[in-house]
Amino acid sequence: MTGWAEPIPFYPPLIRFTMYPLALRHFSRLLRIALPWLAAGLALPLSAAPTYITIGTGALNGVYYPTGGAICRLLNEESDQHGVHCTVQSTSGSLANLADLAKGEVQLALVQSDVLYHAAHGSGPFTGQAPDDQLRSLFRLHQESLTLLASATSNINTLADIEGKRVDLGGPNSGDRVTSRALLDAMGWQESSFAPTPATSAGNRLEGLCNGTLDAALIVAGHPNQGIGDLTGRCKARLIPIEGEQIDQLLKQHPYYQRSRIGANLYPGQTSGINTFAVTAELVALASLPADEVRTIRDVLSSRLKQFTRLHPALTTLTPETMQTDNIVPPHPGMQDAPPASTLVPGALAPSGAAATDPSAASTGDTGAPSVEGSPATTNPEAAGATLPAASGAATTDPDAAKVLEGAAVGQGDAQSGASTVATSSAATTTEPVAPAPNQPSGALPTQAPAAQ
Fold first, then answer.
1. Kindly report the CA angle at 65 between 150 and 389, in degrees rounded to 5?
2. Which helix (H) or strand (E) holds 421?
3. Of 446, 267, 223, whose CA–CA distance to 355 is shortest?
């Protein structure tokens, strides 16, 4: 019996199956090679489908938008490891973000603390609505100061001087208006305590500080702030302290407000610090957001906190302790177990500019610029991530902070299509493809007010 002359039986006691010797040798060799690879493949876990999350932020030239971009950048840099892809959505601020969150159009939202409190308790702008018991907290971020700006010709030097004057309190149902109303209540004022203000479009409501049709304006904003730098430089507007016994009582009654101080020399003509009070920017989600996704967000921000704080001047004073949330709403279950320790990142992202590290000089806001609810988010890409040098009036950008949005890759169809419009209960919101801010914004600072918190 040689070669292919005759077939031989294969396991004849069990079944009569014939195979040629040469073919049998090839088959055995194939099994020896393939079986180890097959076993290894079966031992590997199935790859999880990628997860896409969108963060509702604020106007493009504010602080919320680049803050969301910083979060997305860090998440997207490691998306091949954890599978979470992040998108930033520009909106008209806190109230719009909560509306989008409820509709499932965003999975994370940046919301000022007093608005979050009112949403959770059915009060303030949410009066008549059931308290939202599905809101969950992830992180507390930067401060957002209530800022009183007075025109150069208004003869306003103290908070009490604004009574009877033409004062812009913020757009209806805006975050500005929510915080301004708290101030009015503390002072015993009504909206009728002020002279009527001229009708203006949402985009230029603060131009009255320059053309003489407004005496003052109250703004929840970040510092240093691009829009305020324009008003103080071009129009000689002045920052007025918000302080006194009534403010002390307000802070005692409402723990979601904090004392704040706007650092000296942040704006032209502003040579001393300004006392005021502030809300905080809260990163929130719904209870239905999967805990493993929240853990991923928590672990990335906690382990790369040093890098996160270098991506925008508003974030420079954050620490693991200050980012712990309070009891405005319950923490998300994904935040409950211990996060990894913060690690020092390579020096490649160390700021080369002079980003403020003094907590009193780093008070920051929801939009980071004068704002009005109901206006579309501004589309000036030069404004995103820009900061002001001390008392110069010209905008500069830390090269590292300017890269903050590069990593916020658009991960959803709406964002990929450009600037699609999303309806909210208060205003239109726009989803923008996230692009890096330029290293050198133009010297002419935008005067258009972005949408409010």
1. 50
2. strand 420-423
3. 223
Cβ-proximal residues to 220 (8 Å cutoff; 6+ apart), any chain: 112, 144, 145, 146, 147, 170, 175, 176, 179, 279, 365, 366, 367, 371, 452, 453
State how beta strands 135-150 and 258-262 pair: unpaired
User: Tokens at residue 294, please?
Assistant: 């929240």
The phi, psi pair for 222, rounded to 5°, reads -100, 155
H-helix or E-strand containing 77? helix 64-77
Tens digit of pLDDT for each residue in 247-277? 999 999 999 999 999 999 999 999 999 999 9
Listed residue (392, 387, 451, 396) closest to 424, CA to CA: 451
Cα–Cα nearest to 149, from 210, 59, 203, 194: 210
410: closest CA among 380, 445, 434? Answer: 434
What are the start-end ranges of the E strands in 102-134? 108-112
At 344, the amino acid letter reads L
Q: What predicted TM-score, i.e. pTM, was given to this entire model?
A: 0.70
